[in-house]
C-alpha cells in the first residue's frame, strides 16, 4: 500500500464529495488522486473450475434423486469454495437488463440530486456516495467506486427517483428473496437441520435484505486504486450480477481467482452468518473488486440475511454433533453495523473476531 490520508477526527466512512463518475469523466484525469491510493496486486488465476448449481434441479421436489443430488452439490460448493454460479434460476433476463438500465439512470442523476441520500450513519436505510476505509495504521483511503445501498426488507427503502429503479429493485429483490430461501432450506436439509431453524432461529419471514449497486469507473492506474478491498459479506447468501466487465475476484486455497460467469447466471457466495450458523461447514469466502483501465463496471448485489433481530450462533444440533461451538453469537443487525464501521482493511475481520479457538 502506498501513501494515504491519515485518519483524523474528521474521518468519515461515508462521504459525498464529488461522485467518482463525475471525477473520472474528466478527460484530464490521467492518474489516481492521492486520496484513492491503494497499491494492489490484482493478478488472479482463471476460474475454470467454479462450481455450477442448477437451481431448477434444487427445487425439483417431484424428482427426489435429482433434488438430493443438487442439495449435495450445493453443500459441497459451500464447503469447498463458498462460492458458486447459479444457473436456471428463473429470474427473467429482461428483469436483469431492466435492473442495469435502472441503476445507470440512478448513477446518471446530478450529484445535487443524489446528495440527499448521503449517509449520516451506518444504520441509514438509504446510502450513496463514496466509502472510505482505514487500515490498522490508521490511514484511510477512498474506494474507487460510487455506490447505492438500500435496506429493502422487511421494510422497503428506495429513492423515489428514478421510478424505474424503485419498481425494478422491488421486483428483483422479491424474486431473489425466494431464491435465497430455497438455498437456505437446501443447506439445512444437507446438514439435517429441521425447518424450525429456518423459521424460528433465522426468522426468514422477516429476513433483513440489503440491495447494493456498485459503479466502478474505468481507472487510469488500476494498480493504484481498488474498487472493494478483500472482505467477506454479512448475511447468509449474497447474489451478484454484473454488466459483463470482469472485476470480481475470490480467494480459494490462499490464491486469488477471477470469478467469471456465463451470461444471465448469478454469482452466489456463502456469507458470514451462514459460516457461523453452520459452525464452519459453509465457508464465507473472501472476495474483492478490482478496477480496469478500459471499461466502466457495474455490479448489482443482494445480501440476503436472517432477520435483523435474530441472534446468530452455530445451530445447536451442529454444536452437539461437533462437540463445540466454533463461533460466538451476535444479533444480526449489530453485526451489520460493526462490519460497516469497525472493519480495518488489514485487520481482523468481524467474522474472525467471532471465532472461538479450541484450547486443546
Ligand atoms: O462488485 C463486485 O464485484 C463485488 C461487490 C461486493 O463484494 C459487495 O458489494 O459486497
Ligand atoms: Fe462483497
From TrEMBL:
Residues 206-306 form the Fe2OG dioxygenase domain. GO terms for molecular function: 2-oxoglutarate-dependent dioxygenase activity; metal ion binding. InterPro entries: DIOX_N, IPNS-like_FE2OG_OXY, IPNS-like_sf, Oxoglu/Fe-dep_dioxygenase_dom, Plant_2OG-oxidoreductases. One of its GO terms (biological process) is response to molecule of fungal origin. Pfam families: 2OG-FeII_Oxy, DIOX_N. SUPFAM superfamilies: Clavaminate synthase-like. It comes from the Eukaryota. Keywords: Iron, Metal-binding, Oxidoreductase. Belongs to the iron/ascorbate-dependent oxidoreductase family. This is Fe2OG dioxygenase domain-containing protein. It comes from Salvia splendens. The lineage of its organism: Eukaryota, Viridiplantae, Streptophyta, Embryophyta, Tracheophyta.
Amino acid at each position: 500500500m502506498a501513501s494515504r490520508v491519515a485518519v483524523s477526527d474528521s474521518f468519515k466512512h461515508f462521504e459525498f464529495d464529488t461522485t467518482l463518475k463525475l471525477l473520472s469523466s474528466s478527460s484530464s484525469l490521467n492518474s489516481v488522486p492521492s486520496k484513492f491510493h491503494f497499491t494492489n496486486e490484482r493478478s488472479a488465476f482463471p476460474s475454470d473450475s467454479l462450481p455450477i448449481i442448477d437451481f431448477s434441479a434444487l427445487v425439483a421436489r417431484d424428482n427426489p434423486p435429482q433434488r438430493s443430488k443438487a442439495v449435495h452439490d450445493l453443500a459441497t460448493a459451500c464447503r469447498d469454495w463458498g462460492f458458486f454460479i447459479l444457473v436456471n434460476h428463473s429470474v427473467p433476463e429482461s428483469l436483469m437488463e431492466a435492473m442495469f438500465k435502472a441503476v445507470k439512470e440512478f448513477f446518471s442523476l446530478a450529484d445535487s440530486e443524489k446528495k440527499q441520500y448521503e449517509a449520516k450513519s451506518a444504520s441509514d436505510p438509504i446510502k450513496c456516495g463514496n466509502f472510505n476505509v482505514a487500515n490498522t495504521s490508521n490511514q484511510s483511503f477512498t474506494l474507487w467506486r460510487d455506490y447505492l445501498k438500500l435496506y429493502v426488507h422487511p421494510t422497503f427503502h428506495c429513492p423515489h427517483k428514478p421510478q424505474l429503479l424503485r419498481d425494478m429493485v422491488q421486483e428483483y429483490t422479491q424474486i431473489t428473496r425466494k431464491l435465497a430461501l430455497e438455498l437456505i432450506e437446501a443447506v439445512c436439509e444437507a446438514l439435517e437441520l429441521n425447518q424450525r431453524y429456518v423459521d424460528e432461529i433465522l426468522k426468514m419471514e422477516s429476513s433483513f435484505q440489503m440491495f447494493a449497486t456498485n459503479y466502478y469507473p474505468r481507472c487510469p492506474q488500476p494498480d493504484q486504486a481498488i474498487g472493494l478491498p478483500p472482505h467477506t459479506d454479512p448475511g447468509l447468501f449474497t447474489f451478484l450480477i454484473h454488466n459483463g466487465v470482469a472485476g470480481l475476484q475470490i480467494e480459494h486455497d490462499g490464491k486469488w481467482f477471477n470469478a467469471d460467469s456465463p451470461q444471465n447466471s448469478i454469482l452466489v457466495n456463502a456469507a458470514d452468518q451462514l459460516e457461523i450458523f453452520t459452525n464452519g461447514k459453509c465457508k464465507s469466502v473472501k472476495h474483492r473488486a478490482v478496477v480496469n483501465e478500459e471499461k466502466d463496471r457495474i455490479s448489482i448485489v443482494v445480501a440476503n440475511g436472517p432477520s435483523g433481530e435474530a441472534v446468530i450462533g452455530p445451530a445447536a444440533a451442529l454444536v452437539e454433533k461437533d462437540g463445540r461451538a466454533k463461533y460466538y453469537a451476535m444479533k444480526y443487525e449489530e453485526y451489520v453495523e460493526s462490519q460497516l464501521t469497525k472493519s480495518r482493511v488489514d485487520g481482523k475481520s468481524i467474522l474472525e473476531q467471532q471465532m472461538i479457538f479450541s484450547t486443546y
